[in-house]
Amino acid sequence: MYWILAAIFLILAVAVPRVRIPAIICCVVMGLMLSWGMVQRLRGPSATDPPAPVRGLPSPAVATRAFPLDAVDLTELKMVGGGAPFDLRGRIANRSHDQRLISVTLQITRRDCFEGALDPSGCVTLFEDRRFIPVAIAPQEEREFAASFFAHGSAMRPRGTTKDEFVLVSAEGQTVR
Question: What is residue 132's three-state secondary structure?
Fold first, then answer.
C-alpha cells in the first residue's frame, strides 16, 4: 500500500509543478513509514504481543463419545415440505443420567403409497437420506427441535399419500461433570 501511494506522489511531483513540494514531502513521509514497517517486521514479535495462532493445527475439541441409542427417545417426528426445503420437527428426550446429548443422526425414508405401485407393499421409495441434527440436551431433559434440509437431486412429487420412516442411526454425547 505504501509503495502505491509513494508512486502516486512521485508521479505528481514530476508531472505537476504546483504540487511538487507537498508531493515530495508526502513521498518522504511514505518512505519513512515503509522503513518503519520493514524494521518492525524484521525485529519480529515482542514479548508483550499475544501469540499468533499456529496455522494447520486443529483447535482443541470437546471430548465427545458415542451415546447409547436406548437413552434417546424421539417422538412426534414429522416432515413437511416439498424438498426445497423439507422441514423436520419433533421432540427428543435424553434419558441418560451422566451425558449431555450433543447430536443425533437420523436415517429418513420417504415413501409414496398409491394404487398402481409396482412394489408389492404398495409404496415406492421417493428418497432416502441421513441427516445430522445438532442438539444440546442436558441429562434427563427433553425438548422440541426443528431442522430444515434440501433433498439431494430432484425430489419427486408424490402420487398418493406419503409415509415417512425415521430410524435413529447414531448419537453423540459429552460427559457432564
Answer: strand
